[in-house]
Structure formats: C-alpha cells, structure tokens
Automatic annotation (TrEMBL):
<dbReference type="InterPro" id="IPR011576">
    <property type="entry name" value="Pyridox_Oxase_N"/>
</dbReference>
<dbReference type="InterPro" id="IPR012349">
    <property type="entry name" value="Split_barrel_FMN-bd"/>
</dbReference>
<protein>
    <submittedName>
        <fullName>Pyridoxamine 5'-phosphate oxidase family protein</fullName>
    </submittedName>
</protein>
<dbReference type="Pfam" id="PF01243">
    <property type="entry name" value="PNPOx_N"/>
</dbReference>
<feature type="domain" description="Pyridoxamine 5'-phosphate oxidase N-terminal">
    <location>
        <begin position="31"/>
        <end position="150"/>
    </location>
</feature>
<dbReference type="InterPro" id="IPR024029">
    <property type="entry name" value="Pyridox_Oxase_FMN-dep"/>
</dbReference>
Length: 204
C-alpha cells in the first residue's frame, strides 16, 4: 500500500500537465463536427449513477438513432430489452449521464456528458418507431460537455481489426452462463437453441 495514490497532488505530479489539444477539444455544445460523429454511430454506451450504484448499458440501432435535437439536446430511444431498466431507475434518482459513441472502423470515440430525463410523449415515441414499433420511452439529454477521445485505446485493443475477432464458440454461451448461475433453473442448451429465433422476433 506504500505506492497507493490517494491525493490529487500526487496524481497530478505523476501524470503531469494535460496536453493542450485534450483541453481545447472539449466544448459545451454539439459542434457540427461532433454532430457528424453522433449521426454516424450505430452504438453508444450509456453510463448512469443511482442509489444502487453505477450502470453502463449498451444501446444500438441503425446509425443516427441518437437524434441531435439542437446543439444542446440529444434524444435517445429506449428499445426493447430485459426490463431491468437499471439505467432508467438511476436517471429517476440522479439525472447525470454520460455517453460513449463508437463507429465501426473509426478509432476515435465521442464522449458526451449531461443530464437526462425520461419522456413518454406518444408523438415523440412515434418519431423513433421502427417497423411500426415505437420505443417505450425516449431519453432527452441536455448536453454539458462534449469531446472526442483519441484513437489509442481502440488501436491498442485492435477493436476493428478483423484478424483480432474472437470466435464466439470459444466463450461460454448465454445458456451455459445462466444455467451455472441459476443452478439449472434457467438457461441451458434449450435456451441457446431458441435464442436466435427469439432475438429475431423481439428485436423491437
């Protein structure tokens, strides 16, 4: 524990002064260049905080599914899921939220921080309908800070490198995990066998 860093002075002495670009790239609105990233992204991770702790939830749809309402506002549909609604529970208690946008083939990511609220206005929900199916709610996020993250993490991870893809069969299946954690009450081979069809029919 002698090398534990527990104060800002020690931390800042270790890391030094931030590079000028890392400061200048942060703004408090959706600059047109940042808007281009959002409109090209088919995937975003939503981070929230609440009384039960932290949560990061994946959200995905065709590129541009997060709508830029204006330079200070984003709209994010909440699609069908497992009904745990961990993110939404957190937002009810604490509106602070963060988004991390990823674009296939692009090494930079985009980070947006702000405050979210949950809307269930029928006209708004209809705007986000796909195949005649609207989301149950839409998150409206008031933007506070926006900046792009440099490419190092994605490049180091080889995230978009086809040669680095992992064979799904090399990892435990969803049914295997559920069966192990539930003592066999749910999951198993039948769960795995039925999953592809279930995902197809319950996507929206």
């Amino acid at each position: 524990m002698t090398h534990r860093i527990s104060d800002l002075e020690s931390l800042e002495r270790l890391y030094g002064v931030p590079a000028a670009p890392s400061i200048r790239k942060e703004v408090d609105y959706l600059h047109p260049h940042y808007r281009a990233f959002i409109e090209a992204a088919p995937f975003v991770a939503l981070a929230t905080s609440g009384p039960q702790g932290l949560d990061v939830s994946p959200r995905g749809d065709p590129a541009g599914f997060v709508h830029v309402e204006d330079e200070h506002t984003l709209l994010l549909p909440d699609r069908r899921g497992n009904n745990r609604i961990d993110s939404l529970r957190n937002i009810i208690a604490d509106p602070r939220a963060a988004l991390l946008f990823l674009i296939p083939g692009v090494a930079e990511t985009l980070r947006v921080n702000g405050r979210a609220e949950i809307l269930a206005d029928p006209a708004l929900l209809e705007r986000f309908a796909i195949g005649g199916k609207a989301p149950r709610t839409v998150l409206r996020m008031r933007v506070e800070t926006v900046f792009f993250q440099c490419s190092r993490a994605v490049l180091r991870s080889r995230l978009w490198d086809p040669n680095a893809q992992v064979d799904r069969a090399s990892l435990p299946s969803a049914g295997t995990i559920l069966a192990a954690l539930s003592g066999g009450e749910v999951g198993g081979q039948q769960y795995d066998d039925e999953l592809p069809a279930r995902l197809k029919t319950t996507m929206y």
